[in-house]
Design brief:
It comes from Kribbella sandramycini. The structure is a single chain. The chain has a single domain, classed as Sandwich (Jelly Rolls). Helices cover 30% and strands 20% of the residues. The strands form two sheets. A six-stranded antiparallel β-sheet has the order 1-8-5-10-3-2. The longest helix is centred in the N-terminal third of the chain and has 18 residues. The mean pLDDT is 95.
């Protein structure tokens, strides 16, 4: 584990073209951020915690579109020292800070997104619909824990859509898929839909629209995500019930108008 821990601490060299791509398009995919050995060292613990902590027990066929999209388990780091090591990676956090152009980033929360065998599409959406933040300086790293071919449902991005304000009031739903599919096409935001190699990760801004195909393979699509925010992020008054829930769940003790400072939001870089 020592070698893999050292990789999680080491710097990753971000090229100027990578940074420019993120700034222009609102996302970037980066190869070889994590080695197969590092992923192999942490995947069993992450998957074990997903199985242990998952609360979705309704059969896949009986769920709504959101429920069919993935199993979603948050803040695994609170239940596992090994997951805490992974989520606290300075390598991953430093990349987030560089891409956001900020001095320091905090953890918002982690989130395992496991698309089961036969799991459905993840509709078009922007993550920041769910988050009570005053600025757009927030980013998600999407870390597949296996090679992720198109048949398994990798993330697809609408390139440049982080500047598009239409549809920001839509939660993940059949409606968001329908409305945004049409609006993004009409505005000529090209869809970038590609497989992920093992060790390849992506970073996307909170307002970058994205979706994912169904998983038509017999194997679950195992993905770990970590959400980072500018360490000086101010909390906005919640605009919907999801943001109210996030404020209570992931920012305990903090109030709108304050800087994020709860014990659940440590500075990672």
């Amino acid at each position: 584990m020592t070698a893999t821990r050292s990789e999680l601490d080491a710097d990753y060299t971000l090229s100027r073209s990578d940074l420019a791509h993120f700034t222009e398009y609102g996302f970037v995919k980066l190869k070889n951020v994590l080695s197969p050995a590092t992923i192999a060292a942490y995947e069993p613990e992450i998957t074990g915690k997903v199985i242990e902590l998952n609360t979705q027990h309704v059969p896949l066929a009986e769920r709504d579109t959101y429920g069919k999209a993935f199993l979603q388990v948050m803040n695994l780091w609170q239940d596992s020292e090994q997951v805490l090591e992974f989520v606290s990676s300075p390598r991953l956090a430093r990349l987030a800070a560089q891409l956001l152009g900020v001095q320091s980033v905090r953890l918002y929360h982690d989130q395992a997104l496991y698309k089961e065998a036969g799991g459905g599409v993840t509709p078009w959406h922007a993550d920041q619909y769910y988050w009570p933040f005053t600025t757009d300086r927030c980013v998600t790293v999407w870390i597949p824990l296996q090679d992720t071919p198109m048949e398994m449902g990798p993330l697809s991005f609408a390139a440049g859509s982080h500047v598009f304000e239409h549809g920001r009031d839509l939660p993940i739903s059949d409606e968001s898929e329908r409305v945004l599919q049409q609006a993004l096409r009409e505005q000529d935001f090209p869809e970038v839909s590609e497989p992920y190699e093992l060790g390849e990760v992506s970073y996307h801004l909170g307002w970058t629209f994205h979706h994912a195909p169904a998983n038509t393979t017999p194997i679950p699509r195992r993905v770990m995500t970590i959400i980072y925010v500018d360490a000086t992020m101010e909390i906005a008054p919640p605009l919907n019930s999801f943001q109210e829930n996030d404020l209570a769940s992931w920012l305990p003790g903090n109030q709108p108008g304050e800087l994020i400072s709860s014990p659940l939001n440590p500075i990672l870089y």
